[in-house]
């Protein structure tokens, strides 16, 4: 090992070190070799592009803990052969439960703020196609800036991966736009109640499109969801067909997004995947916004909004709603990657409860008793479905591991 390393990285000036190395006791020679390797070049303990593991420094280092300590110290840049450095335990590592709780809180907080600000914008600027474009545009700018500074480093993309991501992005764009059309047409709480039907569409697509067998228990758990949404829709004071149908189209779009996402599984990290999807979705959303709302926006839309709230507030509202949209989606991804499927299911259900509850409080939406009961039944059904599905997924995972 030493001859390979030294033949590529040392100079003639290091030959005296070799002579001394042969005259030293074997154990001390091993420690000196470790120090020499650590100071060969700017690459530190890199040998021919591969990181040198501590246990490979010398076979003798495996014989006792006293010999292992200097090697670890050298890897950390410490030249003292007798000192042992222990990496400090950070707050996040020491309190993992609090860390996960913080991620959930941040996810819910950003989601609630987005929904409230989004609805307030629609109260004086009812143009959901254009606002949807702003959501994605702010997120794309954020991703481009992040790539520029290297946080994260941009992952390369080729034609094959692009073909896989385009259907995902198209479904994401359609689902996002129709969700915003629903938000603009009806109360936020009602849109989220209708969107509670998304698990039903996911199960139906899995059964009839993907050919997967769905257990009868999952189908039964979806019955309260359908009943609850029906009860809430019949007596919802803000009900209109545009808001209801748009929310249903959003459910179908996000269901197909899930189907195409499974086909587009890749080794690329979720942050880069979401960035590419956002860029493609933005390109998809711009033409409909220009065709459907463009003429009205240029004629009266912008002027009316500026007359009501002023130019500065109008621009700042659009910027911040786009920023909160991107951040809550990004934090949601980071949060759900940290937890087990069951916790994931609980988190999604609680998020919907938070959004519905806060929207009713903030906007003072009046709901009938039947609407409230129907919403509660629908949320309970979603929770039951999520628990059963998470348990099934965990059993499958354990079976594969066995």
Could you describe the 3D structure shown?
- This protein has 402 residues and is mainly alpha-helical.
- Helix content is 76%, strand content 1%.
- The N terminus is likely disordered.
- The protein has a two-stranded antiparallel sheet.
- The protein contains 17 helices and two strands.
- Helix 3 runs parallel beside helix 4, helix 7 crosses helix 15 and helix 8 crosses helix 13.
**Termini separation (Å)?**
38 Å
> Which sequence of SSEs, written as H and E, runs from N to C?
HHHEEHHHHHHHHHHHHHH
Average pLDDT, all residues: 77
Outline the low-pLDDT stretches: 1-85
Estimated share of beta-strand residues: under 5%
* Biggest beta sheet summary: 2 strands, antiparallel
Q: Radius of gyration from the CA trace?
A: 29 Å
- Helical proportion, percent range: over 70%
Spatial order of strands in the largest sheet: 1-2
| Structural class designation | mainly alpha
Number of helices: 17
Please sum up the structure shown.
With 402 residues, the protein is an all-alpha fold. Helix content is 76%, strand content 1%. The chain contains 17 helices and 2 strands.
What characteristics describe this protein?
402 residues, mainly alpha, two-stranded antiparallel ribbon, 17 helices
Chart the SSEs and their pairings.
Elements: H1 2-9, H2 15-23, H3 26-38, E1 46-47, E2 50-51, H4 65-75, H5 91-94, H6 96-124, H7 128-149, H8 159-185, H9 188-195, H10 198-208, H11 216-235, H12 241-263, H13 270-292, H14 294-309, H15 311-336, H16 341-363, H17 369-401
Antiparallel strand pairs: 1-2
């Amino acid at each position: 090992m030493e001859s390979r390393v030294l033949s590529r990285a040392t100079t003639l000036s290091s030959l005296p070190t070799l002579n001394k190395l042969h005259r030293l006791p074997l154990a001390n020679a091993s420690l000196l070799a470790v120090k020499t390797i650590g100071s060969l070049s700017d690459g530190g303990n890199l040998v021919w592009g591969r990181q040198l593991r501590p246990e490979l420094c010398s076979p003798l280092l495996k014989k006792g803990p006293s010999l292992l300590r200097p090697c670890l110290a050298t890897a950390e840049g410490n030249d003292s052969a007798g000192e042992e450095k222990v990496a400090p335990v950070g707050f996040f590592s020491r309190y993992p439960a609090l860390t996960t709780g913080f991620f959930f809180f941040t996810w819910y907080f950003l989601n609630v703020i987005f929904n409230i600000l989004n609805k307030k914008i629609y109260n004086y600027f009812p143009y959901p196609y254009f606002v949807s474009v702003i959501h994605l545009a702010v997120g794309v700018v954020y991703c481009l800036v992040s790539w520029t500074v290297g946080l994260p480093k941009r992952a390369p993309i080729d034609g094959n991966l692009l073909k896989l991501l385009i259907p995902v992005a198209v479904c994401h764009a359609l689902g996002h736009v129709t969700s915003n059309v629903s938000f603009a047409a009806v109360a936020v709480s009602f849109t989220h109640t209708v969107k509670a039907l998304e698990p039903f569409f996911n199960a139906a697509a899995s059964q009839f499109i993907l050919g997967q067998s769905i257990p009868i228990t999952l189908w039964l758990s979806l019955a309260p969801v359908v009943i609850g949404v029906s009860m809430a829709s019949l007596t919802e004071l803000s009900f209109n067909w545009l808001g209801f149908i748009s929310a249903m189209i959003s459910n179908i779009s996000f269901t197909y997004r899930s189907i195409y996402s499974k086909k587009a599984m890749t080794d690329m990290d979720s942050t880069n995947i979401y960035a590419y999807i956002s860029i493609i979705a933005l390109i998809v959303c711009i033409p409909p916004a220009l065709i459907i709302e463009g003429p009205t926006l240029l004629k009266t839309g912008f002027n009316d909004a500026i007359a009501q709230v002023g130019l500065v507030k109008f621009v700042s509202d659009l910027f911040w709603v786009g920023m909160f949209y991107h951040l809550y989606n990004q934090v949601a991804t980071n949060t759900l990657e940290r937890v087990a499927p069951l916790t994931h299911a609980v988190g999604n259900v609680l998020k919907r409860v938070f959004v519905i509850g806060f929207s009713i409080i903030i906007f003072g939406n009046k709901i009938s008793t039947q609407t409230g009961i129907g919403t509660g039944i629908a949320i309970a059904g979603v929770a039951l479905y999520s628990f059963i599905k998470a348990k099934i997924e965990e059993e499958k995972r354990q079976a594969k591991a066995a």
